[in-house]
Amino acid sequence: MDTIDPSKIKKIAINTGGGDAPGLNAVIRAATLAALRQGWEVYGIRHGYRGLLDSKYLIQLTKDRVRGITHLGGTILGTANKGDPFNFPMEGKNGIEMVDISDRAVENFRKLKFDALITIGGDGSHRIAHSFIQKGMPIIGVPKTIDNDMIGTDVTFGFDTAVTTATDAIDKLHSTAESHERVMVVEVMGRYAGWLALNSGLAGSAHAILIPEIPFDIEKVCEKIYSREAAGRHYSIVVCAEGAYPKNGGLIVQDENIIGRREPLLGGVAKYVEKEIARITGKETRSLVLGHLQRGGSPSSFDRLLGLRFGAAAIQTLLEGKINVMVALDPPIVKTIPIEDVIKGMKSVPLDCDSIHVARYLGVSLGD
Questions:
Q1: Which of 106, 103, 150, 101 is closest to 125 using CA atoms?
Q2: Per-residue pLDDT tens for 162-178?
Q3: Which of the following is catalytic: 20, 84, 115, 147?
Q4: Res. 192 pLDDT band, cuts 50 70 90
Q5: Which CATH number fits domain 6-157+299-331: 3.30.565.10, 3.40.50.450, 1.25.40.10, 3.10.50.40?
Q6: Does the annotation count 255 as an active-site position?
């Protein structure tokens, strides 16, 4: 295990990267206040890692700076899902070129006399963190994503709020779908994991839930709609994870290549399912993409508490002399896991998990 002498810590930095999630400010507040109680200086890095490339993006975090932010959505530090210092877009001879400027970030980190970085983010942020660890930067990771797809932690903060937001939207669609006798197809986030779709779909009493872990057969989905029609139920709600895809087909994406992004931009599966259902069944069908609505708003009490626990745990981990680990929820405790283990894969929905069984017992179609 990599270690640090806690008695020598004087100054730390905090950044938030990737997509925003409700609860980020709770982490920042808890980590800042816990660090200040140790007599440490605390600085926030605005917009991902940019503060390590240009000091104008650094702000000192004080008690006043973090007062009253636990209940606020978003992040007071701003965030970015572009601008990876190891793959940074810069103007070159042939236009925009991707350049490795990570050494500059490490040099500035040392010049600013930071003793450790607390990075709050998802798997992308932790992959960047692991690369910085290889260059000698001491890091504590905090897992953040509404997708709940990070290895090593039972749940990530932001997920509970996103599920609640999506569930509320699905609830509202029932009445309008029934009034017009339509099929409503709802696309939620989640990337390549179906946690958000499965949980919000079940909570919102969806009739079909399509997730990446189970490639769907559109005919099977239509069979569910037909069976409801036969029973006198002339409307249906279908929830799709953005990473869901048809059998014998590939991922449906909005854009394969966006400068500064490591992965294609997912989206469009709801529109695909809408058209196929209308074509096969003849039912009037509409689609709705919840999009960034799921990221916004005030965090739930669960996400506030989890964020506070993670923030405090990050400082406690430094006080214990441990670095290059991520704090993680292992109910009822918060533990640590090496960052190198976190980035080895993705936490998908197990096909034998309780929620999958619940869906099948309720008669929900999973498209298989």
A1: 150
A2: 999 999 999 999 999 99
A3: 147
A4: very high
A5: 3.40.50.450
A6: no
